[in-house]
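Late entry, pyridoxal-5'-phosphate complex.
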Amino acid sequence: MGDLYREQMLEHYHEPQNYGVLADAEVDVHLDNPTCGDTIHLTAQLDTEGRIAKVMFEGHGCVISMASASMLTEAVLGKTPQEVAALELHDIEDMMGGLRLSMGRVKCALLSVNALKKGLKERGRL
Amino acid sequence: MGDLYREQMLEHYHEPQNYGVLADAEVDVHLDNPTCGDTIHLTAQLDTEGRIAKVMFEGHGCVISMASASMLTEAVLGKTPQEVAALELHDIEDMMGGLRLSMGRVKCALLSVNALKKGLKERGRL
Amino acid sequence: MGWNAVDIRREFPIFSHPVNGKRLVFLDSAASAQKPQAVLDAIASVYTTSYANVHRGLYSLAEAATERYEAAREKIAHFVGATDPEELIYVRNATEALNLVAYSWGRQNIHAGDRIVITEMEHHSNLVPWMALAREKEAELAYLPVNDAGELDLAALPPLLADGRTRVVAFTLMSNVLGTIPPAQELVAMAHQAGAVVVVDGAQAVPHLPVNVEALGADFLAFSAHKLGGPGIGALWGRRAILEAMPPFLYGGDMILSVKKHTATWNDLPYKFEAGTPAIAEAVGFGAAVDFLTALGMEEVHQHEQALVAYALERLPEVPGLHILGPTHGQRGGAVSFWLEGIHPHDIASVLDAEGVCIRAGLHCAEPLHARFGLPASARASFYVYNTIDDVDALVAGLGRVIALLRR
Amino acid sequence: MGWNAVDIRREFPIFSHPVNGKRLVFLDSAASAQKPQAVLDAIASVYTTSYANVHRGLYSLAEAATERYEAAREKIAHFVGATDPEELIYVRNATEALNLVAYSWGRQNIHAGDRIVITEMEHHSNLVPWMALAREKEAELAYLPVNDAGELDLAALPPLLADGRTRVVAFTLMSNVLGTIPPAQELVAMAHQAGAVVVVDGAQAVPHLPVNVEALGADFLAFSAHKLGGPGIGALWGRRAILEAMPPFLYGGDMILSVKKHTATWNDLPYKFEAGTPAIAEAVGFGAAVDFLTALGMEEVHQHEQALVAYALERLPEVPGLHILGPTHGQRGGAVSFWLEGIHPHDIASVLDAEGVCIRAGLHCAEPLHARFGLPASARASFYVYNTIDDVDALVAGLGRVIALLRR
Ligand SMILES: Cc1ncc(COP(=O)(O)O)c(C=O)c1O
Ligand SMILES: Cc1ncc(COP(=O)(O)O)c(C=O)c1O
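Prediction complete; structure with ligand written out below:
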């Protein structure tokens, strides 16, 4: 577990970046992970070129789901929806500093990125 | 197997006693054992006191089923239907000279006695 | 008492291997128990000395396999107080046993407008099969509620039985989340008086308590070998008259008497419900697990766990912000679920793992029960014959680390 | 070829024990195969180093168990040529796999007046589930006939497909009685062209031949671990699109995504069809058996058996009054059934047993096929990787004893 709870993860968990709700956001999506009760409410704004300009999240969950959401709000800035759609587990693991997740924690780490993909799809951006 | 194919068994198998059909018999019954294809046609006559006076059988089957049928036609002479009904596996095993049957062969050994019980029941003798 | 959990633990080979460099503190036996060497030996001995397909063979090896397979059935039947081993059917697990009842008995006996009563503390395996049956048959699925203390609200049962529409009452003999042991005999008596069939989920109770189907009075009892130290197999006990009146569940080899092209007749109990080649060595391993527990004594197993639970219920509240689910005193099973303010159960489990302490986190296959308590998930420590007071201490110490790391 | 059955036999511990004072000549592998030491070791190693319930645990032990359980799935899927391991579902045995299809796919897709086509050479496990389904749905059950040589009469299929009422064609990839290997790709193509789903019973073929679901083109393949040297577990492979459209079969833990009091949603493949705690160590043992066979090479396994069958077909006719069932030349599986004039198959098996020779006698769960040949029962010798020419000689010599003892 040493890895899972390394300093960087705990910092994002205890002091999440971009925590809250973006007013009048184009993307506004709820997603949860029923098997463990993690929930996320993610809002995002795109710029005039259609790139991600700002992302905020609110939610409850474990260190992995919350820290990864916090990191994601920074990592996707400037990306196109297609680039977001292409993000896979290993990208998220890299984003978290090269963590290797066990099968039981994969869903936690993917919650926020899946929420963002879902929200972009709902708005016809994907 | 030594036991199963001892001399006494083989004699009854090769030269069955009371093989054939008793004409105008009160008891006249067919029974088979679908899992192995053994079949028996058993006929029997009761005397004025209601005791078994004569039994004959015809059929196809393994050494156990045929030899036990042959032995049964002798062993039940003079018995009442109630006495026949009371015959259990160990009685049949004793009749066959104290054989101990494995689970897979029990049905073979009981074919003829079950046929006789069924036939007596059909005639209201049980 | 002569109970010595440290000695007992030595009989379970897994405890001789450290986990993450630490002594293994296994507190997830409610999910699945570790296996004693005697069970491994029994399985290996089948494969090395007496393996062949059962029932159908007419040679010594097949007879030896059949005898061991049937001897295990007899042991397992007696272990739950059944006098007739033919009432005991081998299945894969408790889940399959409950599905067997819902499919075979249920589809024949449940009709539109009938009611099926279960409880709010059921495991999904004693819940979803009934939900599916209710949906197929347009029957009603009703829940006996659980109160805040984690006990069944018995007063809610008579109104559910009063109109004569309830055909079956299904409940667990021990909650896998709350540890609650419901007043089973009372429930059975009430259900039977209303003409309902009673299905008991013994998955948690059978490994941990003396269970006797005659004393219990229920009509079916489902349980799994893997939760009592056996391999991947389970059993359904049912009353002969009911089993005989039921249609088969799975169709195929061994469960038939005779097959023609368009008709078939069924074999006698228990084979009518055992289609195809059974899990032979697994059945023998199941019997060996039952022997192991019988030698310990099920009353003693229960006493041992009661002592561990009492100690855990005393020590856990020392952890700041820890809340226990379910009864905190009286008779209860060896599963203790809890939650920590502000910390997700997943993180509790992960941090404890680094200390060698294995607990379970999540919904424990009891989502409606968690909804009842307004919890998205919980953590659970559960005990078995090999656990000791030291294991509880390791848990409490580990929870200290969890808080140090994750709470601000 | 480097095949050495005597060396291979040494890897199976059961052959180091004499039977009735004689060398064990095991000729009943079509019923169930013996287990190599590698399989016993794999099972024991799960229980001694990495046992816990799978999927639900968040600790190292559970992760290790889950990894081994899923790695085995991947191996087994690849063993039958499936590229997507999520299309492979663990079940108890081939029988349960076929019932799963008949219950889940069948009850959703078969309606009154539809036709189900099977063959006269099916094992009861690929026959009675369809009979039960046909009865429930008032569908028609039709049989593709077997000719006197023991081959399927393919010309009878087009008329059964012509009216568009046939929804499913189910057949065995190798007869457990006749050894017949039907022209599977042709059957699949014809069935698919008529819009029927194809269910293949691979219980006999998968242990003995290279089987590749992609080349085969079928929609489902059922098989058992115990017939290929593994423990009491089995598998169903199915096409993703079909599996996804099917409702669940067994309901309970692990097969759900979320459960509310009156609704539930299902988990993804393969878990949707794996309710309750699976047979974990058994799955790993299944994987080890597949590794063992893969190392031998399935093409080599088949060649080895072909050679034994050819030798048996040459020597058996030396026995006076012996009649062989099924094809006597060409490609065929390693099961050779026969009957002896005037001698009941039970007696053949019992007398051979005294010589250490294990064969099977009876209907081999194929009663309609025996009716087709007018036989009340037959005897069967079947071969596997550990059998040798010597075993065939022992059989022939034993049959001499049978005749000396029982024929006058
Ligand atoms: C052709 C065939 N199909 C199905 C089965 C059933 O397999 P199992 O008994 O493992 O379910 C068998 C074996 O008995 C078989 O030979
Ligand atoms: C109360 C209860 N019922 C049923 C089950 C299902 O048991 P299995 O997964 O062995 O089928 C469990 C265990 O998971 C349980 O705790």
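Residues 90 and 98 of chain A are 8 Å apart (CA to CA). Will revisit in the morning.
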